[in-house]
Design a protein that fits this description.
The chain folds into two domains: about 1-130, no CATH class; about 140-330, no CATH class. About 85% of the residues lie in helices and about 0% in strands. The protein has helices at about 1-25, 35-60, 65-95, 100-130, 145-175, 180-205, 205-215, 220-230, 240-275, 275-280, 285-315, 320-325. Helix 6 runs antiparallel to helix 9 and helix 9 packs antiparallel against helix 11 (about 285-315). The radius of gyration is 22 Å and the shape is globular.
């Protein structure tokens, strides 16, 4: 139920974002790359900012301690601050370009509605989660067989989508679509297969991410402490419970972070595949988008690789805490 709700919210948010981009493109008489990029980034913040804030409030016990309450208030302030900047940027570019007023105001309205929904639904979801706790179970590290099964599922989905694209191409050929048109559709078909495989990989591993809540007792302040020690290599004084949580946090993140990195690589690869046809024509905006995608990967890959190595090293150095039996976790 929890995973299904999360998937629905993510799909709905992504649909809003894609719909907004379509409105931007359709609302411009001549394509303005700068305006399109600024408005898209602004809408991304206005959509995913509330999603992040609401998900955080629903998933973590932010009222368990003063430190947790302070941390949550900081998350809210940062998110709201980013949304204000995004709204100003959206309106500002509309003023500067003397166009897109309606779309810009619609984006700001969407951000306000989603933020209000996050602040209302987040606490309600948290109370529902506390009233309907998952069955207690002991700590069990993620097994290699589990990892292989999830990867296999993603490969099967990718293969199925490629086969579907081939079948669709054959059907279109029978309807009289010429070869150049089919070749133009090929990059889009491959991009959908790549992005689809990435989404399946992420959604199929959501249960692993839930273990991060379990090993930290849903305490965001504890999560922050152990993350600083494991991923940031900070020297903090941890009590015995925190040390165990840190070791198990390292065990989980050493597997979930490669999945997140794989998704990002697949996502940006899919985006770049979609631009192949436009790049061949020499269009400017696809060049900017591909350049942005390459730059994003150049940042994400080293960052994630470094943190994955730190998590694996910490898990190896504290293997006793990772593999030791534990009392049932909430």
């Amino acid at each position: 139920m929890r995973i299904a709700a999360f998937v629905i919210v993510v799909l709905l948010s992504t649909s809003i974002l894609l719909g907004g981009v379509v409105l931007l493109v359709l609302g411009q008489d001549a394509l303005d790359p700068v305006s399109l990029i600024v408005q898209t980034l602004a809408l991304t913040v206005l959509v995913y900012g509330p999603l992040t804030m609401g998900s955080f409030r629903a998933a973590w016990d932010v009222e368990g301690s003063q430190e947790s309450r302070t941390y949550y208030r900081r998350v809210v302030r940062i998110t709201l601050g980013l949304e204000v900047v995004a709204a100003i940027a959206s309106v500002g570019v509309a003023v500067a370009r003397s166009s897109g007023w309606v779309v810009s105001l619609a984006f700001v309205g969407i951000g306000i509605v989603l933020t209000a929904a996050a602040l209302i639904v987040g606490p309600v979801a948290a109370r529902w989660d506390r009233a309907h706790p998952a069955p207690s179970r002991g700590w069990v590290a993620i097994q290699p067989a589990e990892v292989r099964r999830k990867i296999l599922i993603a490969f099967v989905v990718f293969g199925a989508l490629v086969v579907l694209a081939v079948v669709a191409a054959a059907a279109l050929t029978g309807l009289g679509l010429d070869a150049p048109s089919l070749l133009a559709l090929l990059p889009y078909s491959l991009s959908l297969a790549v992005i689809g495989a990435g989404l399946v990989l992420v959604f199929s591993t959501l249960s692993w991410s839930r273990r991060l809540r379990e090993v930290t007792d849903r305490d965001p302040s504890r999560l922050r402490r152990v993350a600083k020690v494991v991923l940031g290599r900070k020297s903090l004084d941890l009590d015995e419970q925190d040390k165990t949580a840190a070791a198990r946090f390292a065990s989980v993140t050493s597997i979930t972070m490669p999945v997140q990195l794989a998704y990002l690589v697949l996502l940006y690869a899919g985006i770049m595949l979609q631009q192949v046809g436009a790049l061949i024509r020499g269009d400017v905006f696809p060049m900017v988008l591909v350049g942005f995608s390459i730059a994003a990967l150049a940042v994400f890959i080293p960052l994630y690789t470094s943190r994955i190595r730190r998590a694996r090293r910490y898990a190896r150095e504290h293997e006793a805490e990772v593999t030791a039996p534990a009392d049932a976790l909430p």
